[in-house]
Amino acid sequence: MCRVTHFTVLSFNVGRKGRLFEESRRLASERAQAERLARRLSESRKGVVLLSLTGDPDLNDWDEPQIIATFGCVPEDFLQMS
User: Fold this and answer.
1) CA dist 27 to 5, 11, 24, 36, 40, Å?
2) How many helices and strands in the chain, by DSSP H and E?
3) Residue 76 confidence (pLDDT)
4) Domain boundaries of the chain, sorted by first residue
5) Per-residue model confidence (pLDDT) at position 79
6) Rg of the Cα trace of the chain?
7) Residue 40: Cβ within 10 Å count
8) 15 alpha carbon, distance to own chain's centre
9) What pLDDT does residue 41 have?
10) C-alpha–C-alpha distance, residues 68 and 36, integer Å
11) How far apart are CA 14 and CA 3, in angstroms?
């Protein structure tokens, strides 16, 4: 049983009707790398969410995603997770 942690940076922008949409999803191997990416993206995107996901990929057994940081405007679903 080998548990690993993956870091994901989601960026959001506003569409024509004024709604937020997920623009990109980027993976990072380390937390510091993910934090740098999230901060950099927050300068040009409407919102950014940095998540971590820990679990055992061999067993497909994952904990609930954890929000590490949010920047700017993010969908309400993410705010309810934290």
Assistant:
1) 11, 12, 10, 12, 14
2) 2, 5
3) 81
4) 4-81
5) 67
6) 13
7) 12
8) 19
9) 97
10) 12
11) 36
* C-alpha torsion 2→6→53→12, nearest 10: -170
- Two tokens, residue 81: 């997770």
Residue-wise pLDDT tens for the chain (82 aa)? 799 999 999 999 999 898 899 999 999 989 999 999 999 999 999 999 999 999 999 999 999 999 999 999 998 876 666 5
| 29 vs 36: CA distance, rounded Å | 12
Residue owning tokens 């997770």 = 81
Lookup: tokens for 10: 């989601």
* CA-based nearest residue to 74, from 30, 21, 15, 16: 21
- pTM (two decimals): 0.86
